Every structure is written in structure tokens, then in C-alpha cells.
Amino acid sequence: INAEYGNTSTTLTMEAQGSESTMPLDQIQVRDLVVQGVIGVNQGERTKKQNIVINLTLYFDITKPGETDDVNYTINYSTVSKAVIEYVEKAHQYTLEALVLSIAKIICFNFGVEKVTVRAEKPSALALARAPAVEITRTKKALLEREKEREKEVKKDQKKKGSNTLIPYSLSHLGINTNEDEKQSTTQENDNLVFIALGTNLGNRVQNLNYGLEKMKEFCTLRATSFLYETPPQYVVDQPSFLNAVVLVTTSLTPSSLLEKLQQVEAEVGRVRNSSTIRFGPRILDLDILFYNNLVINEDDLIIPHPRIYEREFVLAPLNDIYPDFEHPVLKRSVSHLYSQISPRLANRVIPIGSGKQVTAEGDAKEVLQMVQVGKKTQVMGVVNVTPDSFSDGGKFLTEDLALAHVKALISDGADVIDIGGQSTRPGADRVDVEEEIKRVIPVISAIRRAGIIVPISIDTFYSKVADEAVKAGANIINDVSGGRLDPQMFEVCQRHKVPIIINHMRGDPKTMSSLTDYSADVVTDVINELGKSIQSAIRAGIYRWNIIADPGLGFSKTADQSISILRDCKKIRSKLSFPILIGSSRKGFIGKILQESDPSRRVWGTAATVVIAVQQSVDWVRVHDVKEMTDVIKVADVFYRHT
After folding, report:
1. Residue 219 CA: distances (Å) to CA of 138, 224, 496
2. Closest CA to 54 of 80, 78, 30, 74
């Protein structure tokens, strides 16, 4: 009997074997069923279908259908063949062994067959042979018994483990060793480890992502976030660029229930799914389940792992940030390996930074957001100290008018960000109380925004209340020289406002830091580990990874020689931490020691040299007093070292 199923051909034969009482069951044979599917462990086999030849022998008593000529008493060959074809086309398995066993289960459990022989061949696998093949014979009884044994083994294994061990949502996979990193994070037994991709290219993209993440926290526990990427559209290119990220969560929801919840979040933010929706087209918010534990699910409305992970840079780049060693349960390749195969790479890591509100033609005040690309251009942060005692420019900009005029000059000179500080952090400086610092900085920030100046403002403070008031007044970045250590509420303020934070390395406080300079033989490694701990604390407090900038703290708890070592090895620091790096070398004491110059204002050329070194060391931001001069230096240095 010959039959056609799409591009496959099937030949069915029946062979009777003796009498019912003395001979084995009869055989219904399906010969040379050719199906195109994905099977194999090599990269090429995981992304391209190949012919798989299936042969089936169904052991079945044909006496009654043979005597009555009634199809109700036999097996529907067409239905069996279609079931096998449908499974093989979706299975994407690695081995023929797994494939034939799965087919045996389908036939025995779904079609009432007591015994089956399954043979599968890969004609294109070997050059010098017709085909490698695997053949098995199984009874329904044996398969059922094995399923019961496996269920017992799984329960025993779960009981032995007690809980699911998760990757630490820290920096240990980046090579940063801290005591906290050695403690694995655990969840309850019913929690599941899930990677979810987020994408948006309509409306306020950052607001869309923040809304989606906050809603997800209602039914998931957020464990880690990736960095943020701005990516060109794929598949349908005539649309705006996307913002993409990946988050790692744990949840007790089943895959289907989780999908339903995610689609509800999409709908709440305004996404519409209907027949007129363009596939791969623009969307306000897209939430996709990439991995759910190590499950492989092939259903009409849910496929896990997501079927196009291997070809999508906008998924693999953020996945690689969180868990580069995670093995794709179908492709059997690590995330880092899959990401290494992407070429060309078009996604740009970005930091979303507000820069004030702009009045629209309709008269509305609209928040202006900049997507600052990491690694493309060295960003210049101009310093405005509204203090009487800062080491370099103390007392120069104490009034609101003087500070505002200086801000305008810095912007004209090329500053990308304005950093406003209300107390000196020079070595030995006494602390200013919170209220005094607020009196100094808030009027200046408010004046900048009233003047209609659209530029990101950074608030230089280690007080959470100052940071909170500054952001409400119009600041967009928190620059904490203590790295969150001197005020335990600082990270909460940052997380609540969803603004970037600069985490600086410092021991003690400005008053005591100069006495805390004892490091191991390798000061760079110690700074990486200590700064890594602060970053880890920020992540655990809920700050998104894309909102963190690291500062190794030149001059903070470091001798001149130690600061020189840090600047010399910034590329290593950036590589180990994987976060954008800011350097504040401007006019500092280690430059004065090299130049034998006690007057900070006469260290401009020395500062210029350190800025060039910073660019060569892949530093992303420089904090400087002399913006015009350093902007010129950076323009030239970027051409040589960043190829801009």
C-alpha cells in the first residue's frame, strides 16, 4: 500500500506469521518513511533539516480484521505515519537512540500496540556508508515499567537535593571571588529557573521595559538582569530600533501559566495581538520565554527553548551577560559558543540616561532620554563643586548664578554630563550633614532645569536623602563615592527611581580613607574584588545591570603609586567586572606627585596624559574639571584607540 504525506513517501506491508495460538503476533510494517527533521549534535545539524528514514514493525494480531474485513479492528496506518512524521519534524533530538525510543512510546501508548520495532537512519551522516542506523524492539509493558522506574528516580533525586540550586545572581561567573559568591542561591522545591527576553521599539522604550519588569515581579522573583542593548530590527527592517534585555527569574508557575501571565503584561502595556499584526513587526513590549529549566516543549502555542535563539544576536548578547555557560538543552551548545557564531555583530550596549524635560509643540513637558553607547565614545563628565573646600575649585561656584554660568560653559566646551557635588571628598575632609548638602545642590539642579538645559545631571553624594531629592529636582545619575556602603538606603533610592548609579571603590570615608591603603601584593585584584562586592550588593538590591557604572576610585584609599597601578590596569578591571568604567583622575594628587606640582590648577597637562591612558585602557567615562582641553584630547585619542 503506497501513500503520500507531503514530501514523504510511505510503503506499508503486512506479513502473517502462523496461527494465533502457536506463533508470534503478526507484523504490520511501515517501510522507508522519509521525514525531514533536525537531529544530531553538530552545529550544522542543529540549524538545518536532513532526511531521516523511519522503518516500523508493529506486532499486532490481524486475525479479526482479516476475517471480518473491518477497518475498525486494525491499526490506521495513515494515522500512525502522520503521528510519527509530526513528532520527528518537531523533536529536534540529538541522537537516533532517543528518537527511536520516543517513537516506540508514541506507537505503544497512543495506538494500543503491544510490541514495536523502530529503525531510524541518517542517510547524509556518513560519506563512506549508506547510512548509520539505530534499531530497537520494545514492548508496551516494558516501556510502562521503565516510565515508573524513571518517575521514582526523579522523586528520589529531588528528595536527595532538597532544593534546586541556582546560579548565584552575582559576579562569580565573571571571575570575581567573594565570600558571598561562594554561597549558592536556592529556591523552594517547586520554583523553576526561567530566562525571559524583553524587547520594545515603540513609545517610551525604557518606560515599557521598567513597567514590564515591575509587573513580572508580581508572579516571578527577579534574580538577574542583563545589560541593555539597542539593536537594529531583524526580519522586518522598516521599523524603529529595539531595546533588548534578558532577565533570569524563578517562578512556581507552569510554562503555560507563565506564558499567559506574560501575555497579560504585554496587553496591559498596550500590545495588541490580532490577524492584522505584522509578524516580527513593531511592538510596545515583547516578552518571550527562552529557557524554562532544561525543558523541551513543542506545542502549538508554546515552544521552549525559543526556536530562533541561535540566530538572534539581540537574544544571545544579553543571555551571555547573565549565564554564558548555560547549555542550550536542544542544541547542546553553551550560550557563549552560540554567541561566538554571530557575525556581524550589530547590537550596541547602551545606558539609558535622562537629560531633563523638553516642552513639546503641544505644550507638554516630555522627558528626554539618551541611549549612551558603551565603548563607542569616551564620555566627558564636567565637575561643578558647590562647596567652599573642594581641593581644586572649592569656593568658586557657591552661588546659584555662578554655578549655572559654569554649567553652561562646561556644556559649551563639550561636557556630556554635569556632575554636581555639595561636599568635598578630598582626603581628610570633614563630613557635611544631609540638610546642608541639600541646601547647596538642589537649588543649582533646579536652576539648570528651569533654564531649559537638556543635559544629564549627576549628583555626587553618599547620602540617600540627597540623592532622592536631587533626582526629584532633575538629576539623572547618582555618583556615590562610597559605593553604597555609607548609606544602606542608597541602592533602594536608585532602584526606585530607575536611574544609573556610579559605584566607586573606597574604604572608610573621606576623613579616614588615607589610612586604609594596605592591599595585597596586587592592588588591582583587591580593588576588583572589593568593587565587585559593592556591585553585587547593588544587583541584589534590585538595581538593573544596565544602570551600573564602576569607578575604581583613583585617590580614594590609595597611595599615588596604587592609583598609578589602577590607571595602568583599567582594561583588566573592565574585563573582569564587565561593567562600564569611569575614571576621575583630574588634577589629583598622584599627578602632582609625578609633576612635583602642589597647585592642582597647574596639573592640566598631567591630567591630559592620564585621560589618554584612560582611553587606551578602554575607560568609558572621564570626570574632569578642564572640559574644553580634555574634550580635545579625547577626540584625538578616540580616533586612535576606539577607531571612531
Report:
1. 43, 15, 19
2. 30
Do 196 and 288 touch, CB atoms closer than 8 A?
yes
H, E, C per residue of 536-586: HHHHHCCCCHHHEEEECCCCCCCCHHHHHHHHHCHHHHHHHHCCCEEECCC
- Reported as a single tens digit per residue, the pLDDT across 288-346 is 999 999 888 888 788 999 988 988 999 999 999 999 989 888 877 889 988 998 888 99
Residue 475, pLDDT > 60, answer yes
Closest CA to 30 of 119, 131, 138: 119
User: Which residues are the active-site residues?
Assistant: 588, 623
CB 46 within 8 A of CB 32: no
Local structure of 375: helix, strand or coil: coil
Handedness of CA 423, 425, 427, 433 (dihedral sign): positive
CB distance 99 to 39 below 8 Å? yes
Class of residue 216 by CB neighbours under 10 A (exposed 0-12, middle 13-18, buried 19+): buried
Position 82, amino acid: K
Give the closest residue to 24 by CA, choosing from 68, 77, 62, 67.
Answer: 62
Residue appearing with cell numbers 548509520? 132
Residue 483's Cα: distance from chain center in Å? 23
Q: Is 295 helix (H, G, I), strand (E, B) or coil?
A: coil
pTM for the whole structure: 0.74
Q: Tell me if 184 sits within 8 A of 168, measured CB to CB.
A: yes
d(CA 555, CA 562) in angstroms, rounded, equals: 8
Tell me what pLDDT residue 76 has. Answer: 84
Residue 309: Cβ-neighbour burial (10 angstroms; 0-12, 13-18, 19+)? buried
List the grid coordinates of 606. Answer: 598631567
